[in-house]
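Dear colleague,

Following up on yesterday's call, I've attached the two folding results inline so they're easy to grep. Please treat them as preliminary; we haven't cross-checked anything against experimental data yet. The first protein's sequence and structure tokens come first.
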Amino acid sequence: MRSRFLAGGGVDTTALIVGDYSNGNDGIILKDKGKLQEIKGQNVNLVELSVSHYLLARALDSVGMSERDVTVVNTSDADMIAAYSTSDVTSVVTWNPLLSEIEAQKNATKVFDSAGIPGEIIDVMMVNTETLAANPSFGKALTGAWYEVAALMASDSPEGKAARTAMAEASGTDLAGYDAQLATTEMFYKPADAVAFNQSKELPQTMKFVAEFLFDKGILGEGAPSPEFVGVAFPDGSVYGDPNNVKLRFDSTYMQMAADGAL
């Protein structure tokens, strides 16, 4: 979804690598409540306009509610755990490792997470389309390096554990915490899996949901007349939105080259 922010700003962007999607790594927690419907009328602390905000919108929609039924309170991720410990904060939306730390508190119940919207919160390596076209070797180098690291991450070798330990420290947790995050993330360690996801029939529907969220929040720009203002192109040649204003391109070319051993 962060890529659409660039596209909405007029930057022609290519999704070079689809790395994974959140499959439980982002969630909604209520204090002293056990059902999502009980969020109605509450203040909800989250990082505004982030994937947490998107998750909230999709969760509310799943139970016939909307953001009009709650009040969003913009809260930085650095302040989220401290905020939850105060008596006036009763609902938060966040991601790991913060999510697991808050969920561990005895008055906390996770009532919805990204496993409820699989394939929608995507982590993607984005590049400037013009730069990629002019420098295909740049695309090959990035893609090759990506899958070398992915293979290392997936390994239980000492080198793999060392790599994940370093990544854990960089993200503010330990190896066990990082491995727990990976367990709630659908990782595309193999390029063929990323290609299959990129070419799936579900991806255009996800981009429609994202576009509607961005339009509702004004992120597509003041002049955007509808969620379809920005065009999104897919590997099969189809386009969601305006085909004359394509600014986001899901292209399987380099991932397919990696799958074929042709980098």
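Below is the second protein, in the same order (sequence, then structure):
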Amino acid sequence: MARRDAGGHPGDTRTVRLRRAQRRAWRRVRRAAVDYFRGDGADWIAFVSLLLLVPLLTFATVSLPVWFPPTVLVMPVISGALLLRPSSLVLLYAAAAAALAAESVLLGPYDGSDLTRVTPGSVLTVGAVGAVGLVLAQFRSRVGVPWRRGGSMLFDLRERLKVQSRIPSLPAGWHAEMALRPAGGQSFSGDFVVAARTGTGKRVLEAVLADVSGKGMDAGSRALLLSGAFGGLLGSLPPHDFLPAANGYLLRQGWEEGFASAVHLVLDLDTGEYELLSAGHLPGMQRANGTGRWQTKEAEGPLLGIYDGAKFEGVRGVLAHGDVLMLCTDGMVEAPGRDLSEGMDRLMGEADRLVGSTFAGSAWRLIERVAEDRSDDRALLLLWRE
């Protein structure tokens, strides 16, 4: 039988109690650190640390002015602009101003030759940095996202957009690739893809390739919102009701640049029969394995978000074994002084050169060959059947 201490449980020794206390303290510290990183915690730790740094730098400036000039006070000023709320930042600035005054008294008045003393330029430098920092802190406070969380939030939004653009796994014999490259090397794009397996037994592939007005960061937030909405509509409505519902959604947003183009693919994975429905988008391009020729599949329909009650007429086709279907946004084929048909011909010609080789990875290679240095977002969806 386990030995019991008087008034306690087995093994409830002083060492065990100490370890439990350490674990509780560590959990509290970790929770406080996470809250501070997310912007939910108080900023008093950073405020006290920076406030204590001000007299230390003042002492260093008075003792070693050659190594620590008066402008070294910009270090806590900049750090405070990134870490503190505006109310705490004002108090830190007051301490920095008092430190400059103390340095001016202790080092003696500026005589026009000794640059280790507090010069008018030093005061202007610290003051200008403080003013810019206060503006940034007020803007950050108004937005409600601290700098510690802002970068991770943007990263999370970008990753969510990528996840929503993934093509679901397909049955044996079917392959799909999607490649997207934002304009100017940015992280956000106005082009996106949403896809889902729908129908009885999940034997139907529905994919929507959309191009939101604008490009890069300007269109990224709208693309994220629309991709979530389109993903919710996809599979929840009959195929012919998707584009009218998407059109109504854009009209309800009331955006100044509230339009987008989109192409909706509905593919039967058993028979290879498909239908393309378009909202002002580029035609689809199909390569027949038997003839080796490309054929454009152009459906009719206006842009999304232009007017209510728009009608969208589809075009049908069949993907036989060895056929390739290619969908893209206008950034792939549009260039100054060149017609869209010329850009599409060039894209289909480059795709022909890749058909004989391993077709995997062709989407990225086509972007690099056809539209590497474009000032517009580019997206390409390839679907082929063995």
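For the second protein, one point worth flagging: The two ends are 71 Å apart (CA to CA).

Best wishes,
A.L.
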